[in-house]
Amino acid sequence: MKENKGKIIAIVIATFLLVGIAILIYFNTGNSKQNPVAIENEIVPQEEISDEQLRETTIKLYFADNNEEIVEEIRKVDSKILIENPYQKTLELLIQGPSNEELHSNIPKNANINKIEKSGECVIIDFSKEFVENASEDVEKQGVIISQIVNTLTQFTEVNAVKITIAGDENVGFKNGNITFKQVFTNDD
């Protein structure tokens, strides 16, 4: 009989232990699912992100500093404007000039882009006559103009070279004749 009492007591104790463990497990897992602190730790943005902010991208525009060294300016633009013709829109932003007052562009402000097209890895730009007529006669500044254009357009991975024509003619150059547009310009020039 003592043996049966010992077995019964052992079974009762084991049952209480199992029930106690089950209750602890239930409350611990139940609390983590309903923990109000976990909800408070969610990251909530301070303000809504607009569609315009989601479309924002950066491009590099190259300008000259006071020493006529080429310097990049990072500009945020709406990617929507780059969809149709990214080369033309980027070049138009370059012609408009820098937003940093310490930089300047040597490209004549009244130079118009007649046409831009891509042929293979080369972008062909046809400028109006004002591009050469109103450009500085300083060879260094003319080189900066070419560098500004080439560096800006070769940031696009599919562009490795730039060809310039003036009113459809590639047998033209700057007034002093030191730089002509018969060649294709690359970032290595």
Considering the chains and any ligands shown, give keywords for the structure.
189 residues, alpha+beta, 2 domains, four-stranded mixed beta sheet, 6 helices, 38% helix, 21% strand, rod-shaped
Report on the structure:
- This protein has helices at 2-33, 36-40, 51-55, 86-96, 130-133, 139-153, and strands spanning 56-64, 70-78, 113-119, 122-127, 161-166, 184-186.
- The chain is of the alpha+beta class and 189 residues long.
- The strands form 2 sheets. It has a 4-stranded mixed beta sheet. A two-stranded antiparallel ribbon has the order 1-2.
- Helix 4 (86-96) packs antiparallel against helix 6 (139-153).
- The model has no long low-confidence stretch (mean pLDDT 85).
What's a quick, concise take on this entry?
The chain is α+β, with helices and mostly antiparallel strands and 189 residues long. The chain has helices at residues 2-33, 36-40, 51-55, 86-96, 130-133, 139-153, and strands at residues 56-64, 70-78, 113-119, 122-127, 161-166, 184-186.
Q: Strands of the largest sheet, in order across it?
A: 3-4-5-6
The number of strands is: 6
The pLDDT mean sits at 85
Helix content: 25-40%
Q: Structural class of the helix and strand makeup?
A: alpha+beta
- What would you call the shape? rod-shaped
Distance between the termini: 105 Å
Strand percentage: 15-25%
Order of helices and strands: HHHEEHEEHHEE
